[in-house]
Write a structure and sequence with these properties.
The protein is mainly alpha-helical and about 120 residues long. The chain has three helices and no strands. The chain is elongated, with a radius of gyration of 21 Å.
């Protein structure tokens, strides 16, 4: 048995979306490293922004697969869609895992609060 064209097209589209999501996350990783000059927190926020957009793109890819599964509930189609869904889930885990997020740089001695904000200034 073969897979209908609509299912094959949905799988291809989902894989293109997953690749785009991976590219966005890589772009965010480069933004998160920063160049040493400028505001370090801005680089961290740029990386988080790119990872958030990458997550949304992955969610759209998963939605495409779910819609295709509902429209074509036959065993060959579901097997192909399920395999692609596993690849999408693996990509999402690699991209959106907390260990992949850039960390805030440690504060200087006499540092700030736990949220990474600077300590309030003391007046004498």
């Amino acid at each position: 048995m073969s897979v209908p064209f609509e299912v094959a097209a949905a799988i291809g589209y989902a894989l293109v979306l997953a690749a785009s999501s991976w590219g966005l996350a890589r772009l965010g990783g480069r933004a998160g490293r920063g160049g040493g000059a400028g505001d370090a927190d801005a680089h961290l926020e740029a990386a988080r922004f790119h990872r958030g957009i990458a997550g949304i793109v992955l969610a759209v890819a998963a939605l495409v697969l779910v819609v295709a599964a509902v429209r074509h509930p036959r065993v060959p189609s579901l097997a192909a869609l399920g395999t692609t869904a596993l690849a999408i889930a693996w990509t999402g885990r690699r991209i959106l895992a907390p260990r992949c997020l850039p960390r805030r740089r440690p504060q200087a001695a006499g540092g700030g609060s736990e949220a990474g904000l600077p300590a309030p200034r003391r007046t004498a």
